[in-house]
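Dear colleagues,

As part of the handover before I leave the project, I'm documenting each prediction I ran so the next person doesn't have to rerun anything. This entry is a single chain, and its sequence is reproduced below.
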Amino acid sequence: MTSQSPAPAAELTGRISGGPSELLHEEVLAPQFRFESRHLLHHYVAIEKTLAAEYARMGLLDTDEAHAVAALLDGVGPGTLSARPDANMSDIAFAIERHVEAGLARPAVRWHVDRSRNDLQACAQLMFGRERLIAFAGALAELGEVVVQLAQETRELPMPGYTHFQAAQIITPGFHLTALSEHLLHTQRRLLAAYDGIDACPLGAGAMAGQELPWDRVRMARLLGFDRPQSNALTAVASRRWSAEATAELSLLGAALSRFTTDLLSWGGSEYGFIELPDELSGISSAMPQKKNYPVLERIRGRTAHLTAFHTDVLLGQRNTPFCNLVEVSKEAGTHVLAAFDSAHGTVRLLTEVLRRLTFRAERMREVCEREFLGGFSLANALTLTEDVPWRTAQVIAGKYIVRAVAAGAPPHPGVPELLVEAAAEHSVTLAGPGGLLADAFDVRRGLERLASQGSARPEAVAEALRDQRTAYAEVRAAWERRAEAVRAGAAETDRALGLTAPAGSAVDAVHAEAGDR
C-alpha cells in the first residue's frame, strides 16, 4: 500500500493540518505579502544572504552550498514569488525558503537550522525604516538648499513682521527663511539621532530568548549595515520603537511646516499680496474670474496633519500590548508607517517646488512697511538713549505720538515733530531734536540697519547665519552618507563572503534602489 504524500502546508508545520482560509488569505495575508514583496523583499534577501554567510562560517554549510543558496537568493524578486496558501501559507519568509529549496541541486540539510521568523521580520522591518529615513533625509536636504538660496536672495528686502496678527517690526523674507532653515537642520539632527538610536541589528535574537548556535551577531550586524547588534534578544523582537520614534519626528516636522505654510498662505492672500507663484502652481475660481488661488499651499498644510495622525496610529497600535513578538505590534501597528514616510516626502517635495518658484513682491512689501508705524519700538529706544527719557515713560510718549499721528492721517515717515513734542510735554519732557528722532525711527531701511544683536534681521546678520547653515547642511549630508555607505559596504562584504559579484539589478542593488526612487 502506497503512503499518501503530505499536504504542502503540512510540510511547513506539524501543528496544523492545512493552509490559511480563503478569507484570511484575502483580507490579511495576501495584502501583507504584496506589501512585503514590494517594500521589504530586498531586505529579506539581504538578511538571508547574511544568514547563509554565517552558516558557512560555522561550518553548517560548505562553500558550494552557501554559494548555491546565495545565488538563488540573488535571483529573488517580486515577480518570482507569490502568496500561495497551499504552498507557502501566504508568508513571504516561507515563500523565499520554498523558492531556494526548489532551486537547489541537492538539499542543504542544515540551512535554516536554529532560525526564527521573529528576528527575521523585525530585522527586515527595521532595515526598511532605516532606508526610509535615509531617503527622507535626502528630500529634506534638498528643501534646505532651496530655502537657503531663497533666503540669500531676499535677505535685504524689507517686509513687515507680524505678532498677534498685527504688523510689528521690519524684517526680511531672508530672515524669516533662515528660521525655517534652522528648523530643518534641527529636524535633520533629530533624525540622525533617531537613526543612530535604532541602528542595532535584531538578527540573531531568535524567537525571543536568543539562539542555540554561536552566531556572530557583531558580524551579522556589520554585514547588514548596522552599527551594532541589539543587546537584548527580547527587545530585538518585541520593540518597534523605531516606527514610533520616526513618525514622532515626522509629526513634529509637520507641525512646524504647517506654521511656515500658514505664513505663506497669509502672504499670498489679496490683503497682503507679498508673494506670487507661477500659473502652473496656481489655481482659479470657476465662478470668480478675478481670482488666482494657491491651493498647493493648502495641500501642503493639510498633508502635515496626516503626519500626526499616522504617529498617533502607531502609538495606539502598540500601547497596552505585552512586550513580546506580536503581529498586532509588528504589522498592524505599522500599517501606516509607509504612508507616513510617503506623505512627509510628498509634502517636502511640494514645499521645495513652491519655494523654488516663489517670488516676493518687493515694492508691495515696502509699501506696507512705509504705511505702518513699525518704528515705534525704535522711537521709544531713541527717546531713552538720546533724550534721557526713562524707558517706560518713553514707551508712553511713543504710543501717544502714534495714536495722534494716526488720527491726523499722517504717514509714519518723515513724521510730525509737533505731535511728538506735544506728547512729550504731557510728561514734562522737552525734546532737543524731535524731527530727527522721527525721521530715523520710521525710516524703513534704518529699521534693518540699526539692528545690532546676533541672530537679528539685519542683512549682514542673516548672511552670517546662512554661512553657518550651509556648513551645517554639509556636515549633515556627510553624516547621512556615512550611514548609507555602511549599508552598501555591508552588502558588498556579504557578497564577497558568498562568492557573488552583485550584478546590476540584483537584490543587493535593490537594497538602495527603492530609497533612491523616492
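Strands lie at 159-163, 166-171, 200-201, 228-229, 275-276, 283-284, 292-293, 359-360. Residues 459-498 form the longest helix (40 residues).

All the best with the project,
I.
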